């Protein structure tokens, strides 16, 4: 049975984007499928994703942070400056409504995506660098994300920075810490190692549930506002994500990083933890700005798809 789950985990990890797309399509036609993913349930699911990330961390990863502080600092600063700046700029250029502006700003101010490490591995990037950037940006998120959202979106809406701080702390830092502690205590246990190998698949399933839950929540709004809402939101998400990849790679070139590091910082900057953005939108903004969750939902799906595509492009250039 365990071998079956390990096999299933490998399949889900390999075809993450297809699984997320299939979930999104299913939810569009059968929105009631994921109506149960809301409130505390959604928070718990996101916590499970962060727990699986924590299970991959070892003391060696933290030694990497200590041995390569300059690289990590450059990458993290790029993460929390480029993406928020692009998000705010796009809200002005596209003249977005307050709801949609809040959503894309939330995504831009979140830390790196949890699947970015997998993408770095697939494209032969610097995986240790990727883990370092994701870890540091996640640890800083409870402090940095609420402040950035307050600065960029606070002009039009009330931002509960303290509430967001506690939410991010509970949803990200605590599960990551628990996962790391479990991995540290049981790293020599063969059964634990076998069970841990199924965690990537569980993470993909949880991400699909969050995407499905968000689409279920906004299904009525999407239907009532027609195709135009989806098109303009996707256009903004696409530009935000793509410019993040391009500028992230440019930062690597500017600081004369290796090719592997350039690929990694591109993916780390461009891919956001949109699942966290979704949770924040649902918790703090959906009551007064119901459409704020739409950019987060589309980002959840698109970042996984685009990350896979970019990793494949990088890998194909090596073959050529």
Describe this structure in words.
The chain is mainly α and 320 residues long. The chain is built from 14 helices and no strands. The longest helix has 56 residues, at 199-254. The chain is globular and about 50 Å long.
Helix content: over 70%
- Strand count, sense and closure of the main sheet? none
| Beta strand % | under 5%
Question: H/E element string?
Answer: HHHHHHHHHHHHHH
Overall 3D shape: globular
Count of runs of 4 or more consecutive helical residues: 14
Distance between the termini: 40 Å
Kindly name the structural category.
Answer: mainly alpha
Overall pLDDT metric: 84
Number of strands: 0
Radius of gyration: 18 Å
Low-confidence stretches: none
Keywords:
320 residues, globular, single chain, mainly alpha
Question: What's this, in brief?
Answer:
With 320 residues, the chain is mainly α. The chain is built from 14 helices and no strands. Helix 5 (69-93) packs antiparallel against helix 6.
Tell me the layout of helices and strands.
Blueprint: H1 2-14, H2 16-29, H3 40-54, H4 59-67, H5 69-93, H6 98-108, H7 116-122, H8 127-153, H9 161-186, H10 190-196, H11 199-254, H12 259-270, H13 274-285, H14 293-319
Helix pairs in contact: 1-11, 2-11, 2-14, 3-9, 3-11, 4-8, 5-6, 5-8, 5-11, 5-12, 6-8, 6-13, 6-14, 7-8, 7-12, 7-14, 8-9, 8-12, 11-12, 11-14, 13-14
């Amino acid at each position: 049975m365990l071998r079956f789950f390990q096999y299933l985990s490998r399949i889900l990890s390999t075809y993450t984007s297809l699984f997320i797309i299939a979930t999104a399509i299913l939810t569009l036609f059968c929105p009631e499928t994921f109506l149960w993913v809301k409130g505390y349930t959604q928070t718990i699911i996101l916590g499970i994703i962060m727990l699986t990330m924590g299970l991959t961390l070892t003391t060696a990863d933290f030694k990497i942070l200590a041995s390569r502080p300059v690289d990590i600092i450059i990458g993290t600063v790029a993460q929390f400056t480029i993406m928020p700046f692009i998000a705010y700029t796009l809200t002005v250029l596209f003249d977005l409504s307050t709801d949609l502006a809040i959503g894309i700003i939330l995504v831009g101010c979140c830390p790196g995506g949890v699947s970015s490490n997998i993408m770095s591995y697939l494209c032969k990037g610097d995986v240790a660098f990727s883990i370092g950037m994701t870890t540091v940006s996640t640890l800083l998120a409870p402090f940095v994300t609420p402040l950035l959202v307050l600065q960029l979106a606070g002009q039009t809406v009330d931002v509960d920075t303290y509430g967001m701080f506690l939410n991010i702390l509970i949803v990200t830092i605590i599960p990551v810490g628990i996962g790391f502690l479990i991995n540290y205590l049981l790293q020599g246990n063969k059964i634990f190692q076998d069970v841990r190998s199924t965690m990537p698949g569980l993470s993909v399933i949880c991400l699909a549930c969050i995407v499905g839950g968000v689409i279920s929540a906004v299904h009525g709004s999407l239907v009532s506002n027609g195709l135009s809402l989806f098109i303009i939101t996707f256009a903004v998400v696409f530009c935000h994500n793509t410019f993040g990849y391009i500028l992230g790679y440019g930062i690597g070139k500017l600081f004369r990083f290796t090719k592997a590091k350039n690929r990694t910082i591109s993916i780390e900057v461009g891919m956001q933890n949109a699942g966290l953005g979704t949770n924040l939108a649902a918790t703090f903004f959906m009551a007064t700005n119901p459409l704020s969750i739409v950019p987060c939902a589309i980002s959840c799906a698109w970042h996984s798809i685009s990350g896979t595509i970019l990793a494949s492009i990088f890998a194909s250039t090596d073959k050529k």
